[in-house]
């Protein structure tokens, strides 16, 4: 298969209180999934988010969010513009297709000439 990578598309500081340590230093990150294969690079439409406290280094899951944190996250979700979902074919894909076309052409030529 290929590699998967979560690429940060937006990072925003939040000044809300952390539910774990009650400091006001948190970071909200939005990720988009990218898959890298031998023949392609695919960008997924799937966007995930992660809220991390910079003081206690804990990931704050949505179950522990307060109403203030929830409102801030909703605000930043509207501002996120993910990359368009698409597939980029690499040069190895085009070489593979070209070799396939040449092979089919050679087989058709051999059949027409009676060498087959």
TrEMBL record:
The chain crosses the membrane at residues 93-112. Keywords: Membrane, Transmembrane, Transmembrane helix. This is Uncharacterized protein. The lineage of its organism: Bacteria, Pseudomonadati, Bacteroidota, Flavobacteriia, Flavobacteriales.
